[in-house]
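tool_call: predict_structure(chain=1)
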Amino acid sequence: MGAVPLMPKATAVWLVENTALSFDQVADFCKLHPLEVKAIADGDAAQGIKGLDPVLTGQLSREEIEKGVADPNYRLKLLDPKVRLPEAKRKKGPRYTPVSRRQDRPNAILWLVRNHPEVKDSQIMRLVGTTKSTIQAIRERTHWNASNLQPMDPVTLGLCSQIDLDLEVQRAAKEKPADAVAQGATLLPAAETTVRRETEREQNKQPGDELDVDAVFAKLKQLGGKSE
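tool_result:
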């Protein structure tokens, strides 16, 4: 993935509202999905987000926008921003989630619970910056908005990166205990197992299964007499 403009969604909001660029062009420049840009245009997404003018921030020129409007196949090129922001150091603890995206967290939690049940609550808390009580409420369908929740990928929502999600899923897979079925649903001591097998053998034995020694010898004598 190439360089991403500052505040991609806010930039997309501005481009949708102030230019005639196509959804694909805006999506490519802001590194968003075209359907997400369409949702922004329809008012279904990014509600409450104020548009950020990429021209004022020095990330896009007017000439570049005009090129894109003239040619729908043209892909806008990101300029070096005038303002350099220091790279934020990753802190330990719950992930901070922007206010504009906090309403999406329950949907992301529901997606994680359904698609990756092996992921622990502590991992979900790290990924989307939520609380254990919220996760529990969504698991038990007691969340105040449970009837309206829709499972949505936290990566698509911008709550975490695909790398972070993959790492947590891999970690959960490694820590997951071996399946009880693979180990045997009930592991009994050898002595008890032997006793059970003997008991079952006695119960399943048919009346005619006992060996009649006298009858066998009599039969052998008859055979021996015939051979003489």
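agent: The chain has a mean pLDDT of 76. Proceeding to next step.
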